[in-house]
């Protein structure tokens, strides 16, 4: 997956996140569950993009970066 593909996926997820937040007035359980999934997938995409950039900056092959499990990415402190 190329950086541009990851950025496009991030954009798509951000648009869905905004839509879900706008629909939060209804505040259904399905809506909250999907919003949590989208947020976790966004964290995973950003992590992958950071890995790819770090590998490139270190002179390594960015294609060797792999998406880490959501359970791992969600445990990071910001």
Helix coverage percent of residues? 55-70%
| N-to-C CA distance | 25 Å
Approximately what portion of the residues adopt beta-strand conformation?
under 5%
Q: Could you say which structural class the secondary elements and strand pairing correspond to? A: mainly alpha
For the biggest sheet, the summary is: none
- Give a count of the beta strands, DSSP E runs of length 2 or more: 0
What's the tally of helices? 3
Order of helices and strands: HHH
Mean pLDDT: 90
Low-confidence stretches: none
Principal-axes shape call: elongated
CA-based gyration radius? 14 Å
* Number of separate structural domains: 1
Write up this protein:
- The protein starts with a helix and ends in a 5-residue tail after the last helix.
- Helix content is 68%, strand content 0%.
- The chain has 3 helices and no strands.
- The chain has one domain (3-64).
- Helix 1 (3-22) packs antiparallel against helix 2.
- With 78 residues, it is an all-alpha fold.
SSE layout and pairing:
Elements: H1 3-22, H2 29-57, H3 70-73
């Amino acid at each position: 997956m190329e950086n541009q593909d990851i950025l496009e996926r991030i954009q798509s997820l951000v648009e869905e996140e905004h839509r879900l937040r706008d629909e939060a007035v209804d505040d259904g359980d399905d809506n909250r569950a999907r919003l949590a999934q989208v947020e976790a997938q966004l964290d995973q995409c950003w992590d992958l993009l950071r890995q790819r950039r770090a590998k490139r900056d270190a002179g390594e092959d960015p294609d060797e970066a792999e998406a880490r499990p959501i359970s791992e990415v969600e445990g990071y402190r910001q």
